[in-house]
Amino acid sequence: MSDNFVADKYKATWVSHSSISDFLVCPRGYYLRNVYKDPLTGHKVTVTSPALSLGSAVHEVVESLSVLPVEERLTTPLKEKFNVVWEKVSGKMGGFESDTQEDEFKARGVKMLERVEKHPGPILKKAVKIPSTFIPNYYLSEEDEIILCGKVDWLEYKKKDDSLNIIDFKTGKYEEKQESLQLPIYLLLVTNTQKRKVSGASYWYLNKDNKPTKQELPDEKQSFEKVYEVAKRIKLARQLQHFKCPHNGCMKCTPLERVLRGDGEKVGVSDTKQDIYILN
Fold first, then answer.
1. What is the CATH classification number for the domain harbouring 128?
2. Structure pTM?
3. Residue 5: inside a domain
4. 203-260: per-residue pLDDT in tens?
5. 58 within a domain of the structure (yes/no)
6. Is residue 128 part of a domain?
7. To the nearest 5 percent, what fractions of the chain are helix, strand and coil?
8. In a domain, 137, yes or no
9. Number of structural domains the chain divides into
10. With bands split at pLDDT 50, 70 and 90, how would you rate the model's confidence at 6?
11. Torsions phi, psi of 205, nearest 5?
12. Where are the alpha helices (DSSP H) in 156-219?
């Protein structure tokens, strides 16, 4: 790229792990979640669910610990913090159909956090502090004006070799698929936004495991090629305004299509200015 290149991030195509995952499953779903904005509010739209609300609340509590000194991370019971965060997703805002359903999901969250307190592992080790308001990003390609962005759940600092270990917290029932681009994307993000090298990566399944499960670190060059290829497809789809569901309706796009048809109830606006809906 020429030295005269002037970056205009507003014109660039931004991609992330979630948006890339959306696109690979359903381009139409990608459009409805990442491009479309309600003409009345100017906001993007989303359909909430109990599982999403549970994951969001648990992540917020655990990730907030990284900015605290190690000795202060568990001085306040995590359940107390969880109760405060839960207020943001309680009732319809979290997609809960009844108090009983909400209680069941909330209990699952408490159990995960109790696991973290009993088996803190990396939680009580040095970590890189990334403010919650900052989303790391860099130009995946200046020539194509594509920016890769996203925030890793936890970056553990390894003093022995002055490196970083990527940790991703999982709150769902299913394990990440082998072909997932999550680790390749996280490797690229951390490598290009942090000064230290990445020496390892782990998934921590909080619903069943007492410690993170080590993952094989992907090759950086291959990671770039895979992510860049999909990112270029996304940019082309946006330029052509071509977003079609390969299944003529799927779980990614159908809920949002229903919202556009008026078959939904707006229950609030998220911290990131998304209109939150539940389906009737």
1. 3.90.320
2. 0.93
3. no
4. 999 999 999 999 999 999 999 999 999 999 999 999 999 999 999 999 999 999 999 9
5. yes
6. yes
7. 40, 20, 40
8. yes
9. 1
10. very low
11. -85, 95
12. 182-193
